[in-house]
Structure formats: structure tokens, C-alpha cells
Design a protein that fits this description.
This protein is α+β, with helices and mostly antiparallel strands. The chain folds into 2 domains: about 5-95, Beta Barrel (Ribosomal Protein L25, Chain P); about 105-195, Ribosomal protein L25, C-terminal domain (RNA Polymerase Alpha Subunit, Chain A, domain 2, Beta Complex). About 20% of the residues lie in helices and about 40% in strands. It has helices at about 15-25, 45-55, 120, 175, 195-210; strands spanning about 5-10, 30-35, 40-45, 65-70, 70-80, 90-95, 105-110, 125-130, 135-140, 145-150, 160, 170-175, 185-190. The strands form 3 sheets. Strands 1-3-2-6-5-4 form a 6-stranded mixed β-barrel. The longest helix has 19 residues, at about 195-210.
């Protein structure tokens, strides 16, 4: 588990005007921390620090230590509001992640052996990622940074569903808990591959007949 730590301060002022001033004049991002037994808390943190952390995939599915006014609070990132045209974070939502909290988090999928699996290397298939992340439910101590799916033995026209993936210890796949066995990855022939093969075969036959 990656160790992420961000410094933040309580924020008293609220409203769009205050938020705009924070971003424009002070380089800060308005945010909120909620969940658990405590009331929601408005905070602010440095935009450059948050932006740097957001460049790492693991940040989105890790426990983050927010140091708020000198006191540590474990949280997870729940939502972001970004500027539609600029690389600017407008607002962030963090959920408290105490030891007895049950988290619901989207965890990225890492696909192993994509280029060397049988369906691609020997059978000419193309991999289709039907899901690039999986929503999981778990306690903070069991939260995985990613879910690995090994494609080494995968063949052409095969589909790996959620039920085919072994969940890490203490982790529940939320879709399966609701009887939804979603496809995660599949291998199929590239579009147009059959037509191209038939055209090539027809051309070869024509050349053969012409030679005779």
C-alpha cells in the first residue's frame, strides 16, 4: 500500500466566491471531509500537492493521511471536480476511513501477459478491456491498490467475467454481491480480419488460375 500524506487546513468561509479566491489568489483547493461519527468538515489544501498526487494511479485507491490543522485523519478520495478546459482541480471530496469503516472504492485492473497470451500471439486475436476498474467493498486495512488479471492462458473468443477473478482477502466485488457477473476482458478477431483473409485467398486463387 502506497503511503500518501497531504497537509490541509480548516476552512471557515464557504461559497463560490470564497472558493474562487482560494484557487486564484492562494493556489489552494477547497475540499470536504465527511463520514464516520464526526460532522463534515470544510478544508483547503495546496493545489500543487494534490495535482502531483493525482498523477499516480494508486492515489485513487489508497488510504491517504490528511494532516488537518496538525491532526492526522485517514481518508480516501471519493470525488473530484475538475475544470472542463484547464488542468485545474476545482474541488475534492474525501471520506473518512477509520478502522471500522466499510469502504466502497473503484480499484484499477492490471492485465498481465496481454501480448504473450495464446489468443493474441498464436491465434491473432485482439484484447478488449470491458472493465478497467472494479468496484470493491472492504475495510481500510484490506483495500488493494489494484486487481491483477493474468491473461497468459486466455484463448481466442474467451471472456473473463468478474466471477473468474479471485478477490483479495477481505475484499468483496460489489457487482457480484448484486448478482451481476460483468465481463472484464475478452479476446476476439480484429474487425475485418475474416474479410481480409477471404480476399487474400480469392486473389491467390485468381493468380493460380491465370497461371494455368
Amino acid at each position: 500500500m502506497s503511503d500518501y500524506r497531504l497537509s490541509a487546513q480548516s476552512r471557515e468561509e464557504a461559497g463560490k466566491g470564497s472558493s474562487r479566491r482560494l484557487r486564484r489568489l492562494e493556489g489552494l483547493v477547497p475540499a470536504i471531509v465527511y463520514g464516520g461519527k464526526n460532522a463534515p468538515k470544510s478544508i483547503q489544501l495546496a493545489h500543487k500537492d494534490l495535482k502531483r498526487a493525482l498523477e499516480e494511479e494508486a492515489f485513487y485507491s489508497s488510504i491517504i493521511t490528511l494532516e488537518i490543522d496538525g491532526k492526522d485523519e485517514p481518508v480516501i478520495l471519493k470525488a473530484l471536480q475538475r475544470h472542463p478546459a484547464k488542468p485545474v482541480v476545482l474541488h475534492a471530496d474525501f471520506q473518512r476511513a477509520s478502522a471500522n469503516t466499510v469502504l466502497k472504492v473503484h480499484v484499477p485492473v492490471h492485465f498481465l501477459n496481454e501480448t504473450t497470451c495464446k489468443g493474441v500471439k498464436l491465434q491473432g486475436g485482439v484484447i478488449h478491456h470491458d472493465a478497467v476498474e472494479i468496484e470493491v467493498s472492504c475495510s481500510p486495512k484490506d483495500l488493494p491498490e489494484f486487481i491483477e488479471v493474468d491473461l497468459a492462458d486466455m484463448e481466442l473468443d474467451q471472456v473473463i467475467h468478474l466471477s473468474d477473478i479471485k478477490a483479495p482477502k477481505g475484499v468483496t466485488f460489489i457487482a457480484l454481491a448484486h448478482d451481476s457477473d460483468l465481463p472484464v476482458v475478452s479476446i476476439h478477431k480484429a474487425k475485418g480480419a475474416s474479410a481480409d483473409s477471404e480476399s487474400a485467398a480469392g486473389a491467390a486463387e485468381g493468380e493460380s488460375e491465370g497461371g494455368e
